Amino acid sequence: MEITLNLPPKDWYRNTSVNDLSYWGLDYPPLTAYQSYVHGVFLKTFDPDSVALFTSRGYESYLGKLLMRWTVLSSEW
């Protein structure tokens, strides 16, 4: 979600100085990436630290975990 939320779509699948593909590169189709973007907008509303581009690595909070679980459940619907 961090990538789709903080980078332009043209950079989602490219290795750049801000998009380390070996760490968190997108490996799913563009439609799913846009779904991830929508979830990222939702998370940013309630817990912006959970989708910050660099500082979200290793970030854990109770609210963040609940919101991440919500993204999984909403994807199933």
Automatic annotation (TrEMBL):
Location(s) in or outside the cell: Endoplasmic reticulum membrane
Enzyme category, top tier: transferase
Main location: endoplasmic reticulum
GO cellular component, one term: endoplasmic reticulum membrane
InterPro entries, per the entry: Glyco_trans_ALG6/ALG8 (IPR004856)
Keywords: Endoplasmic reticulum, Glycosyltransferase, Membrane, Transferase, Transmembrane, Transmembrane helix
Pathway field: Protein modification; protein glycosylation
Pfam families in the cross-refs: Alg6_Alg8 (PF03155)
Topological type in the membrane: Multi-pass membrane protein
Family, similarity comment: Belongs to the ALG6/ALG8 glucosyltransferase family.
Name of the molecule in the record: Alpha-1,3-glucosyltransferase
Protein's organism: Gossypium stocksii
